[in-house]
């Protein structure tokens, strides 16, 4: 039997249509903006992700949740009814990324850095002064 996580609820969220909902019981990392081509294609612009320990994430119900293997090292979880992109799950990673836009507010989060900026779109500039990583 799986161990029950009884930590206090840190955050809740879900997709646009409400078919996929989740609860996070544990630490929630501040948001990173990912500018890679895969995130930009999927999310229409750069993607903002918080992150948590997979053991702290409870997804229910899961019948509309689908996973798309976007590369050999990652899969992306989305709602098959409304298309909302919610999760990024890297193979072997100790955390799962949760799209910041899917979180219910107040999130208590801040955007703290930009990643994959070497793949950013050519139609915008990053000018908020936050750290940038390639
Ligand atoms: Zn949905």
From TrEMBL:
Family: Belongs to the Gfa family.
Species lineage: Bacteria, Pseudomonadati, Pseudomonadota, Alphaproteobacteria, Hyphomicrobiales
InterPro entries the record matches: CENP-V/GFA (IPR006913), Mss4-like_sf (IPR011057)
Pfam hit, one: GFA
CENP-V/GFA domain boundaries: 11-125
Protein name as it appears in the record: Aldehyde-activating protein
The entry's keywords: Lyase, Metal-binding, Zinc
PANTHER family: CENP-V_GFA DOMAIN-CONTAINING PROTEIN-RELATED, GFA DOMAIN-CONTAINING PROTEIN
Keyword Lyase carried by entry: yes
PROSITE patterns: CENP_V_GFA
């Amino acid at each position: 039997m799986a161990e029950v996580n009884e930590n206090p609820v840190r955050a809740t969220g879900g997709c646009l249509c409400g078919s996929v909902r989740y609860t996070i019981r544990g630490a929630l990392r501040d948001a990173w903006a990912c500018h890679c081509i895969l995130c930009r294609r999927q999310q229409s612009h750069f993607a903002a992700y918080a992150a948590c320990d997979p053991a702290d994430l409870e997804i229910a119900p899961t019948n509309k949740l689908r996973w798309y293997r976007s590369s050999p090292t990652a899969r992306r979880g989305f709602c098959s009814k409304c298309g909302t992109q919610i999760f990024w799950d890297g193979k072997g990673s100790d955390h799962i990324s949760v799209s910041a836009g899917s979180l219910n507010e107040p999130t208590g989060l801040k955007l703290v850095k930009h990643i994959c900026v070497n793949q950013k779109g050519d139609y915008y500039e990053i000018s908020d002064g936050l750290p940038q990583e390639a």
